[in-house]
Amino acid sequence: MHKATDPVHDPVLNVRSALTAAGAKDTVRTFEDKVPTAAAAASVLGCEVAAITNSLVFELDGEPLLILASGAARVDTQLVATQLGTGKIRRAKPDFVLQHTGQEVGGVAPVGHPQRIRTILDTSLQEHPLLWAGAGDHNSMFSINYEELARITDAEELRVR
User: Fold this and answer.
1) In this predicted structure, what is the pLDDT of residue 9?
2) β-bridge partners, 66
3) Under a CB-based contact definition with an 8 Å cutoff, are residues 84 and 90 in contact?
4) Which of 10, 52, 82, 160 is the most buried (most CB within 10 A)?
5) Looking at residue 122, which CATH number applies to its domain?
6) Does any domain span residue 1?
7) Distance between CA atoms of 110 and 53, rounded to whole angstroms?
8) pTM, to two decimals
């Protein structure tokens, strides 16, 4: 078992590396207090909750599906399944999230996972010039714009609510 401080398995370092490898700026900020929810992050960052990009992991046919949704949105999984033409989408359990992302629920980032995860990007996020997303743990976030987030995640852009 590796410790969280082990650089090979440090989720924040993995996110920083993924950002750099994708040609994006490393804008990761780590805060003294935890920011595990959109409301907590918005409060610390002084932005709207809707500008926080929640990285929500779901399970679809035994595989992970990452939905990047506005912190002000509740994902309509039935709507997403209909648009994708798939079966039922279920919220993933914490151990499934950790297994597929290498990150704990509340700190999941859009990038920095052991393997690429099919990703959906909430089109309502394009209303905000600057977005903030989790950076791999409960204390870290990074800033990015919608177009760059779509590019580095190779996400399918969909309405999720």
Assistant:
1) 63
2) 57, 119
3) no
4) 52
5) 3.90.960.10
6) no
7) 9
8) 0.93
Q: Would 2 be classed as within a structural domain?
A: no
| Number of alpha carbons in the 13 Å side-chain half-sphere of residue 130 | 9
Question: Is residue 144 a contact partner of residue 131, using CB atoms and an 8 Å limit?
Answer: yes
Three-class secondary structure of residue 93 per DSSP: coil
The reported pLDDT for the residue numbered 50 is 97
The CA distance from 61 to 160, in Å, is: 19
Angle at the Cα of 136 (from 58 to 64), degrees rounded to 5?
20
Q: What is the pLDDT of residue 4?
A: 46
- State the residue range of the domain holding 15: 7-158
Q: What is the mean pLDDT of each run of 10 residues along the chain (161 residues)?
A: 52 97 96 94 96 98 97 96 96 97 96 97 98 97 98 98 93
For residue 78, what pLDDT is reported? Answer: 97
Amino acid identity of residue 130, one-letter, is L
| Residue 147 main-chain phi, psi, to 5 deg | -60, -40
Helix runs in 33-84, H state only: 38-45, 77-84
The total of structural domains in the chain comes to 1
